[in-house]
Design brief:
The chain is α/β, with parallel strands linked by helices and about 300 residues long. About 40% of the residues lie in helices and about 15% in strands. The chain has helices at about 10-15, 35-40, 75-85, 100-105, 130-135, 140-150, 155-170, 175-180, 190-205, 210-220, 235-250, 275-280; strands at about 25, 45-50, 65-70, 90-95, 225-235, 265-275, 290-295. The longest helix has 17 residues, at about 190-205.
Length: about 300
């Protein structure tokens, strides 16, 4: 099964600063590219645990005694590592992008290119899909999602049009949604606007930002002192959360200072890394990627 070329592969794994007998976690297994690179650098006594909620990813599991693949959302990372007796790890890697496989598999409904059922579920067992959101959410809630998750300034007009269209006929496919919003899709910007709309719906379907926050909050407890957090994000909403968390341990506001004006933070942040021009040329989906690496410090 073809997934995708891992973005910032060597840079993200280099950032883990792997020790031979360490315990590592790849919380977004996908096609297994990052996991395979981690395993290459681990010694015989090292361990790698990987997470993926998408059952298609299970077909890419790696036959290696040091490797364990867990079919779960990374928002439950601490719970399932505890099940395997793991309380502390040396490094955690997350690649937050949707895989090429998910975009290219028409039936998943992630892509604007195919006329497919409005699905967009990362976990196929979830009850809430894109069609539910489009047909059942209130106009106000749709507008909020399109504005907050898609950065669409005309979100209220888009939401109003969706509601008017669905009142005439239920919107069940990607092309039906596209047709309903046609007057908002000038040829020169059609792909960009549709991508923003689909991104907003996908984030809501999968509760992506809530899951990311829950995951990040657990890394502070899971990582041993000196342990590394390596996170690749692809849009500003994700990157802002990662950036703020590794800077202050918070998602908003500023950390409290003690009597002497000192603040306690869980991480020492490293520099921002972006793909090279060569990587972007070879893999267009790398163009928006940002890698942030942080080191757990003794608070």
């Amino acid at each position: 099964m073809s997934y995708h070329n891992p973005v910032l592969l060597f840079e993200s794994v280099d950032g883990l600063d792997i020790v031979q007998d360490g315990v590592y976690v790849d919380v977004t297994f996908g096609g297994g590219g990052h996991s395979k690179e981690i395993l290459k650098r681990l010694g015989a006594d090292g361990k790698l645990f990987a997470f993926d909620q998408d059952e298609d990813a299970l077909k890419n599991s790696i036959n290696d005694g040091r490797f364990t693949l867990i079919h779960e959302n990374f928002r439950y990372v601490k719970r399932f590592l505890r099940f395997y007796g793991i309380k502390k790890v040396n490094g955690i890697l997350a690649d937050l992008g949707v895989s090429s496989h998910q975009f290219d598999e028409a039936s998943r409904g992630f892509s604007t290119r195919f006329d497919a059922d409005l699905d967009m579920r990362m976990f196929k067992g979830s009850k809430k899909n894109a069609a539910h959101i489009i047909n059942k959410y209130s106009q106000e809630r749709l507008a909020d999602i399109l504005f907050l998750y898609g950065d669409l300034r005309n979100s209220r007009a888009l939401a109003k049009q969706i509601v008017e269209s669905r009142n005439e006929e239920s919107i069940q496919t990607s092309f039906q949604l596209k047709e309903a919003l046609q007057k908002f899709l000038p040829k020169s910007k059609e792909h960009k606007i549709l991508a923003q709309i689909f991104q907003a719906i996908r984030i809501e379907v999968n509760e992506e930002l809530d899951a990311l926050k829950e995951f990040l909050l657990q890394t502070e407890e899971l990582l041993d002192v000196g342990g590394k957090l390596s996170v690749i994000s692809y849009h500003s909403l994700e990157d802002r959360l990662v950036k703020r968390y590794v800077r202050s341990g918070l998602f908003e506001g500023e950390p409290e200072k003690d009597f002497y004006g000192n603040i306690t933070v869980p991480f020492k942040k490293g520099k921002l890394i972006t793909p090279s021009k060569i990587e972007i040329k070879e893999n267009n989906r790398a163009r928006s990627a940002k890698l942030r690496i942080a080191t757990r410090i003794d608070g």
